[in-house]
Amino acid sequence: MHASLLASDQSTQGSLIATKVQENSRLTPDEALWLFEHAELGWLGMLAEVVRQRKNGNLVFYIRNFHIEPTNVCVNRCRFCSFSHHFSKEQWEMSVDQILENVRSQPAGVKELHITGAVHPGRDLYYYGDILKAIREIRPELHIKAYSAVELDYMITRAKVSFKDGLTYLKECGLDSVPGGGAEIFDETIRRDIAGMKSSSDTWLEIHETAHKIGISSNATMLYGHLESYAHRVDHMERLRQLQDRTNGFNAFIPLKFKNWNNEMEQLPEVSITEDMRNYAVSRIYLDNIPHLKAYWPAIGKQNARISLSFGVDDMDGTINDSTRIYSLAGAEEQSPRFTVSEMQDFIRSAGREPVERDSHYNLA
Q1: Residue 163 burial class via C-beta count within 10 angstroms: exposed 0-12, middle 13-18, buried 19 and up
Q2: Cβ–Cβ contacts within 10 Å for residue 124, how many?
Q3: Can you tell me the distance from the alpha carbon of 178 to that of 156, in angstroms, rounded to the nearest whole number?
């Protein structure tokens, strides 16, 4: 699409930004802020689609995956969280045998295991390393994406080793990649307010950078729709973009919507679907060095995820098979999140895209 068409009905600033997007030139933080504050949504979607098409054509990726959430007993007490034992009506601590039985029960063809949960006060680095080794013995073909930076910070610090040594140990045990959770919002003032007990922004970034440098890739997230401003979102993405410039270790960016049920911030209204799409679009345009933008459909619902495919999104995560409770405990629309492979393929085709099964590094299956 020609830049002059993309710039129609927008200001001079919009026209300049459209030209930069069309020419694959990097936007400044001020330009990203302008998009959040002033861009008309349909026009913004067109810009995001230019970037998506350039990076991934008409492909939309998915993976056959499942989650294990070993515990919701947590040393932290985040105000936005509905998952931990502080707010949930449920409390659980899976035994190692229960975790391994879960792994054994998964069907042939599943490619990825995602392990994340609360920061349990009684579990250490070597406990979690032993779990990885046991899973690897049972299902050596699985890609194990495990332990958010917040979990890693606690277990590695408790072991009194460096982040590099702790991550190297886990890699030797079977860790393949790191999920993007725990990033929340990097602005230190907002972070202290909503998650003051959690690892700092600098620590989160340091752990991911360290992982990248020893050959462990990761994803990145951003929690939006709470106390943050547009400027805070841009600052968050800028820090991720700078890290990606140094390491090229992020596979995907995943905006995560704040849900206001069963937590200490339930007085805040949730943002609209319009705001969801605006956030996807600006993310796709601004994060020019992160190859994939994921809509985590258990958080926003399947129908909204379909709409996101017109606002720069190219990845639908996976089949999941009703194996996560993080968002269902927060009142998400998808209380039993699952897709069959055929349902996922039909779902993506219904949005006019081509479904492609991938592995955890976006190689085609």
Answers
A1: buried
A2: 13
A3: 14
| Angstrom distance (rounded) from CA 311 to CA 334 | 21
d(CA 309, CA 293): 10
Rounded Cα gap, residues 314 and 253, in angstroms = 11
Residue with tokens 């408790």: 158
* Distance (Å, whole) CA 205 – CA 278: 25
Local structure of 11: helix, strand or coil: coil
Amino acid letter, residue 286: Y
Q: Which residues contact 301 (CB under 8 A, 6 or more apart)?
A: 332, 333, 334
Tens digits of per-residue pLDDT, 315-365? 999 987 654 444 344 444 544 567 889 999 999 999 999 999 999 999 997
Cα–Cα dist 47/17, whole Å: 9
Rounded CA-CA distance 84/17 in Å is: 42
Confirm if 133 and 167 have CB atoms less than 8 A apart.
no
* pLDDT at position 335: 47
**Mean pLDDT of the chain, nearest integer:** 90
Q: How far apart are the first and last CA of the chain?
A: 31
pLDDT tens digits for 254-273?
Answer: 999 998 877 788 899 999 99
Distance CA 22, CA 340 (A): 37
Q: Is the pTM of this model over 0.90?
A: yes
